[in-house]
Amino acid sequence: QDSSDDIEDVSLFDADDDVSRRSKKSRIRHPVASFFHLFFRVSAIVVYLLCELLTSSFIACMVTIILLLSCDFWAVKNVTGRLMVGLRWWNQVDDDGRSHWVFEARKVSAQGGKTSSEAESRIFWLGLITCPMIWVIFAFSALFSFKVKWLAVVVMGVVLQGANLYGYIRCKVGSRKNLTSMATNYLGKQFLRQ
């Protein structure tokens, strides 16, 4: 007699299970993903800042920075966004050759709780927003100090990290119409408060 259809997995200690679920909300559940989410981003910035002190070879610095930025782009787009906040985006090409951008967000579980922790979410969004802003500052610095050779590297930083930022904002907020209406509503509320 096959009784495997009648068997259901049930937690024996429901109270302990609920307590451990609540404590996991504030803990980092994916420490490796959280580390690499920040590692490539911060490493590219540190190499950019210290490059002229460490070596006189512009090519070696440029290649190192672009490799770090490329690893960051891939890791954030394909791994850390999915694990840390449940968001992902990609480009899909139909059989007709038309390109479609797809922005996805993880559905909320049936119990009504999020599956990602607040700490991971903060780390993800802080790294995702802060680093492109730093690259924009570097872009203005390179432009106004007439360091044209560094401008190409900085533009790569802005483009790669800005693309991830844009993609994940679209995943979080929704369609472009929602994004513009949300920005308009926010600015309107700020104007009325002042």
What features would you describe in this structure?
The chain has a two-stranded antiparallel sheet with strand order 1-2. The chain is 70% helix and 7% strand. The protein has one domain (31-104, 117-188). Strand 1 and strand 2 (99-105) form a beta hairpin. The radius of gyration is 22 Å and the shape is globular. It has 6 helices and 2 strands. Residues 1-20 have low confidence and may be disordered. Helix 2 (31-54) packs parallel to helix 4 (118-144) and helix 3 packs parallel to helix 5. The chain has 194 residues and is mainly α.
How large is the share of residues in beta strands?
Answer: 5-15%
Number of DSSP helical runs: 6
- The value of Rg in angstroms is 22 Å
Our measurement of the CA-to-CA distance between the termini, rounded to an integer number of angstroms, reads 74 Å
Q: Which strand order do you get reading across the main beta sheet?
A: 1-2
Overall average pLDDT = 81
Structural class: mainly alpha
Shape: globular
Q: Which H/E pattern describes the elements?
A: HHHEEHHH
For the report, how would you describe the main beta sheet? 2 strands, antiparallel
Number of domains: 1
GO cellular component, one term: Golgi membrane
Keywords: Membrane, Transmembrane, Transmembrane helix
Family: Belongs to the TVP23 family.
Organism: Gymnorhina tibicen (Australian magpie)
